[in-house]
Amino acid sequence: MTYVLPDADVLYQALLARDPRFDAVALVCVTSTGIFCRLTCPARKPKRENCEFRASVEACVAAGFRACKRCDPAGVRSPGSWRDGGLSEA
């Protein structure tokens, strides 16, 4: 089964609003910086044309992006636990 992301414009609006409902739905990859973040990251928001959205930490890394040091999307929790809110046992 393949996970289909919501429309990129919907995800961009969620990014601008820092909408927590979308935090476990997608990550934003910023092409101008090479960094990926959670949609709720407090960092300055990128221009729409510099945003790509991916469904997982692994997909972001595979595309050549590195994790944001501010929101730490790939940090303390294992990448697999990011989707379930960190509730899984590592």
Provide a descriptive summary of the structure in words:
There is one protein chain. The chain has 90 residues and is an alpha+beta fold. The protein has a single domain (8-73), classed as DNA Methylphosphotriester Repair Domain, CATH 3.40.10. Helix content is 22%, strand content 16%. The chain has three helices and four strands. It has helices at residues 8-17, 57-62, 79-82; strands at residues 27-30, 35-38, 51-54, 66-67. It has a four-stranded mixed beta sheet. A hairpin with a 4-residue loop joins strand 1 (27-30) and strand 2.
Structural class of the helix and strand makeup? Answer: alpha+beta
Strand order, sheet with most strands: 3-1-2-4
CATH superfamily: DNA Methylphosphotriester Repair Domain
Number of helices: 3
Based on the coordinates given, report the CATH architecture: 3-Layer(aba) Sandwich
| Gap from first CA to last CA | 24 Å
Main sheet record: 4 strands, mixed
Estimated radius of gyration: 12 Å
CATH C-level category: Alpha Beta
Number of domains: 1
CATH topology name, in short, is DNA Methylphosphotriester Repair Domain
- How many extended strands? 4
Strand content: 15-25%
List keywords for this structure.
globular; DNA Methylphosphotriester Repair Domain; 22% helix; single chain; 16% strand; 90 residues; alpha+beta; 4-stranded mixed beta sheet
In short:
The protein has 90 residues and is of the alpha+beta class. It has helices at 8-17, 57-62, 79-82, and strands at 27-30, 35-38, 51-54, 66-67. Residues 12-73 form the Ada DNA repair metal-binding domain.
